[in-house]
């Protein structure tokens, strides 16, 4: 297994739409293992393949208290959204140190494949619903800061670019 490099906003590769996985094979299972190791090491509760510059529709999540309930979603699609929404404070491994409120549907039903290629459906609410929507956004080339005002986006972009220059 390997800890992968996480792309940082405003890297344009974060806006690339991920392709569907055609076959859940050993390559995809290795990607899942590497993504899980990367997510746990970061530490985070979710990671999309787009964030590690692999443009396939794969996400890993673990919103459990014990960080021991890894969930894998391959080719996830939201098939139902609640009409009621909720505001949650979100952060992102690709936008380190930035947190802001985003309004999303409170409940979603997601259909996907697991790491063995077996189809499943899950009804998610609360933090799991927020996380799965956030990660599916990544697969669609969208970063959570795009839900914020243009002024906030500009400030975040400037702050992160400045931090990158300071490290370089």
Tell me what you see in this structure.
With 168 residues, the protein is α+β, with helices and mostly antiparallel strands. It has helices at residues 26-41, 126-139, 150-167, and strands spanning 46-48, 58-61, 71-81, 85-92, 95-105, 107-113, 119-125. The chain has a 5-stranded antiparallel β-sheet with strand order 1-2-3-6-7. A hairpin with a 2-residue loop joins strand 4 (85-92) and strand 5. The chain is globular, with a radius of gyration of 15 Å.
List the helices and strands and how they pair.
Elements: H1 26-41, E1 46-48, E2 58-61, E3 71-81, E4 85-92, E5 95-105, E6 107-113, E7 119-125, H2 126-139, H3 150-167
Antiparallel strand pairs: 1-2, 2-3, 3-6, 4-5, 6-7
Short key terms for the protein model shown above:
168 residues, alpha+beta, 5-stranded antiparallel beta sheet, two-stranded antiparallel ribbon, 29% helix, 30% strand, globular
Give the number of helices.
3
- Topology as H/E string? HEEEEEEEHH
Low-pLDDT stretches: none
How does the helix and strand content classify structurally? alpha+beta
Strand percent estimate = 25-35%
Strand numbers in spatial order across the main sheet: 1-2-3-6-7
What portion of residues is helical?
Answer: 25-40%
Distance between the termini: 27 Å
Shape: globular
Radius of gyration: 15 Å
Question: What's the number of extended β-strand segments?
Answer: 7
- The average pLDDT is 96
Largest sheet: 5 strands, antiparallel
Short account of what is shown:
This protein has 3 helices and 7 strands. It has 168 residues and is an alpha+beta fold.
